[in-house]
Amino acid sequence: MKQTALRRAATVTAVAAAFVLGLAGPAAAHVTVNPSTATQGGYAKVSFRVPNESDTASTTKLEVNLPVDSPVGSVSVKPVPGWTAVAEKSKLATPLKVHDHEISEAVTKITWTAASGSEIKPGTFQEFDVSLGPLPETEQMVFKALQYYSDGAVVRWIDEPTTDGTEPESPAPVLKLTAASAAPAAPAPTTEATPAEEGNDGLPYAIAGLIMGLIGIVLSLLAYRKASQAKLPTV
């Protein structure tokens, strides 16, 4: 009886754990931006990775909203086969200066739409590449995204990061920005010889000694030859 009860309890626990994991699985597969960090003031190529959470429907459209409070002057989209991309611009409250030029409008939304047969199928994902910069001098950029499914469902990945570090229910893709590090100072010149230089200091003397030794051997051979010829009897 005890063993039967234990087996039943273990079965119930396993089923409950599988049910909980099944619920948690799709929530973890949210839209992300990769890499997740970049440098302030620079340019970056980022990829918005879009997994398909549904078991029956396909992802047909993706909308990514760029933050209007920290706009970037240059935004370009890499073509994705089977998808069309449209970048929408908006007027800026404060003109943005990029390379000594003032920009009064900037891209604030990018929409990718799939052609028939190119949708993101269940169990697959797609990446959408964007080049943007110069990146603003702020700690992060939050890209609120909307994911559209073929069954009419819309998943809104728009929750901003929490102050306590816990992940929200529908987190928006976040690009962390770090300050540009200063260029490393050039090393000071040194008068000390390196080991290679120290090893090369005696090389000319060694070569000269070798040459003198060879000359000595040649002279000795010539002297020996003359002495041998002098000892031969004359006829």
From TrEMBL:
Disordered, as annotated region: 180-199
Chain segments annotated as transmembrane: 203-224
UniProt-listed InterPro entries: YcnI-copper_dom (IPR012533), YcnI-like_sf (IPR038507)
Transmembrane among keywords: yes
Keywords, ordered alphabetically: Membrane, Signal, Transmembrane, Transmembrane helix
Signal sequence, renumbered to the chain: 1-29
Domain YncI copper-binding: 30-177
Gene3D superfamilies linked to this entry: Uncharacterised protein YcnI-like PF07987, DUF1775 (2.60.40.2230)
Comp. bias intervals (Low complexity): 180-197
Name of protein: Uncharacterized protein YcnI
